[in-house]
Amino acid sequence: MAPANDIKAAKATYEGFVNLVKWSTPAICVLVAIVILVIQ
Prior knowledge:
This protein is an all-alpha fold.
């Protein structure tokens, strides 16, 4: 079993990653839509 500090650090890293994905996915979709509209 990992020490509690390692689990806290891993949880913080994971939450940061999930937050990044949650906000970057819609932003990328909007950028792709804009590029598609410009290309047409």
